[in-house]
Amino acid sequence: xxxxxxxxRPIYMQIAERIENDIIQGELPEESQVPSxxxxxxxxxxxxxxxxxxxxxxxxxxxxxxxxGIGMFVASGSRVKLMxxxxxxxxxxxxxxxxxxxxxxxxxTEQLTxxxxxxxxx
Length: 122
Known about the structure:
Structural class: mainly alpha
Helix content: 55-70%
Mean pLDDT: 90
Low-confidence stretches: none
Shape: elongated
Radius of gyration: 18 Å
Order of helices and strands: HHHEEHH
């Protein structure tokens, strides 16, 4: 866990994203227990209800599930599900935006490909 960065998004969304990142990076393996909302609240110095809202967001998306009386756990298949979600977000936020901007600037597909390959070699 690292510290949250106040980037203008609600804290509960930042908590959810942090958990997602830990799942994607393998720091929270599938079927492992997630820190409690009280642990998140204590670590980030936030209200437990705010932490719970972030955790519950992932429960609603079936990334986490609750074992009654034990705590929250990472659902099987959640890493693949998150990777697909993030790839789609990447496509929408970066690729589509890049292509639209390239079209405005008259950059051809070949030129754009060359730019990407040049950036890959940096």
